[in-house]
Design brief:
Layout lengths: L9 E4 L4 E3 L8 E6 L4 H17 L5 E7 L3 H10 L6 E4 L2 H5 L7 E5 L5 E6 L4 H9 L6
Parallel strand pairs: 3-4, 4-5
Antiparallel strand pairs: 1-2, 1-5, 3-6, 6-7
């Protein structure tokens, strides 16, 4: 998948509308697959949010994708953790397309829509910064 195009998958936003993973083509995108029950997901959320806030002026889009949980639970979870980036719920197609067996899973996509880096499991801050350099302008 690294070096290939980001799959065009339909996800459900927290408001119930359909959102495409490719909706943000033209921007560097960090897609983070998570679940509310996942302890490593919880541990990395504050670091992801911090990087989103500090780099969104560079065009960075962070897109959180919950794994098949009710919207009400995901809304409460993301509010508790102060997540301000867009969140959607995967009904299962994205998990199949990315062959997800472990979360968190992060996919880093450049502004042309090509996958540049994939990280399986909890990322440490330095790893996040290195991965972001593969997709951010001047990185």
């Amino acid at each position: 998948m690294v070096g290939g195009a980001l799959p065009d998958l339909a996800l459900r936003s927290l408001t119930g509308s359909t959102v495409s993973l490719r909706a943000y083509t033209g921007h560097p995108v960090w897609v983070n697959f998570f679940a509310t029950w996942c302890e490593p997901c919880k541990a990395e959320l504050p670091q992801i949010e911090q990087r989103y806030k500090s780099r969104k002026a560079q065009g960075l889009v962070v897109f959180g994708v919950d794994q098949q949980e009710p919207a009400v639970a995901v809304k409460s979870f993301t509010a508790h953790y102060g997540v301000t980036y867009p969140i959607a719920i995967d009904p299962g197609a994205a998990a199949l397309a990315f062959n997800i067996h472990t979360i968190p899973l992060s996919v880093f996509v450049d502004s042309t829509g090509l996958v540049r880096f994939i990280s399986i499991g909890q990322m440490q801050p330095a790893e996040m910064d290195q991965a972001l350099e593969t997709i951010l302008p001047g990185g």
